[in-house]
Design a protein that fits this description.
Layout lengths: L2 E4 L27 H9 L1 H9 L8 H16 L9 H15 L3 H5 L18 H15 L12 E9 L5 E11 L5 E7 L9 H19 L5 E6 L4 E5 L3 H24 L31 H6 L12
């Protein structure tokens, strides 16, 4: 098996369906990340649209705020330990926002006449109110941890491993802490609220993914997986064991086998759930009377898939 930590994006972008494919280029290799595995479990068609078709999706205020808060907490640990205060973190919000707003799609969220973040909102909040809400989430972080007592081993690190069967797993870890005795703690920041007990398993899926990659690369089972929920100032912690990670690895292999079958047949079926209300692709979804575009063989080839069917639709 192989492993590395790099600065490349966790989900390498496949070529757009409209982009020319260089036949002499070495195809990229498909990989599985926590978010894409969750997409396929939620809705196979959503996985196809995001991973193979690479269809554009609107940015949301909630998602951009999450990116902003993550950036602030990452930068916080660039400061000397004694300067990692709530006031210093607040001062990091403005420069982090200035970088984010260089993206025209992000800036457009607050442009005059911009669209609301969801169907229930008549108007998006003012920029000042939105930035203040991000600052409140940053403040909440200090009720959960004392950053002056933490020296992260890694922040926003891409970890990856190739399993013995060839499956490539890749994902970003918000923060990795390593104790003097070698014990690992994996920390992830969430800007929402802690889920109800019935949904804890879904929340921990991402963390078990990271724990598996770290176990396979370092030979150490993480002593703690920690989700920090800044929306309500709560935390969810979990301690996996080796046997559980072995079972989880089999789960990922089963998900990947199902993805490979879907690619081989072009059969990515929709799965209608309450999450459909937030999906940008309803117009192309059969569950809502839409018709998906033809299977993008060129984009699949650019993503490195070995089987490239052309599936005719009735």
């Amino acid at each position: 098996m192989t492993a590395m930590v790099t600065g490349q994006p966790a989900d390498a972008a496949a070529a757009s369906p409209d982009s020319p494919v260089d036949p002499t280029a070495t195809p990229r290799r498909p990989s599985l990340s926590p978010s894409r595995a969750a997409d396929f479990k939620t809705c196979p068609l959503l996985y196809r649209f995001r991973t193979i078709d690479r269809l554009p999706e609107r940015k949301s205020l909630a998602a951009v705020r999450g990116t902003l808060v993550h950036s602030v907490l990452e930068r916080l640990y660039d400061l000397p330990a004694r300067r990692r205060t709530a006031e210093a973190a607040r001062e990091l919000v403005a420069p982090a926002w200035e970088e984010l707003r260089t993206d025209p799609e992000v800036a457009a969220l607050f442009a005059e006449g911009g669209t609301a973040d969801d169907a229930a909102a008549e108007q998006p909040p003012s920029l000042e109110a939105w930035l203040a809400s991000a600052g409140e989430l940053v403040d909440t972080y200090f009720s959960l941890e004392d950053p002056s007592r933490i020296e992260p081993h890694g922040r926003e690190e891409l970890v990856e491993v190739t399993l013995p069967d060839g499956l490539l797993l890749r994902g970003y870890v918000d923060r990795l802490d390593v104790a003097p005795n070698g014990a690992l703690r994996v920390v992830d920041y969430k800007t929402g609220s802690v889920p109800r007990e019935a949904f804890e398993g879904k929340a921990l899926f991402q963390m078990k993914f990271y724990a598996l990659v770290l176990w396979r690369t370092r030979g150490v089972v993480a002593s703690q997986l920690k989700l920090l929920y800044l929306g309500n100032g709560d935390a969810l912690t979990y301690a996996p064991d080796e046997a559980e990670l072995v079972r989880f690895e089999r789960t990922l292999q089963a998900i990947w086998a199902a993805i490979e079958r879907a690619v081989a047949t072009g059969d990515f079926r929709p799965n209608r759930t309450r999450l459909c209300g937030w999906c940008d692709h309803q117009a192309l979804c059969p569950a809502f009377g839409g018709t998906p575009p033809p299977f993008p063989a060129a984009a699949a080839a650019a993503a490195g898939w070995p089987t490239l069917p052309v599936v005719e639709r009735d």
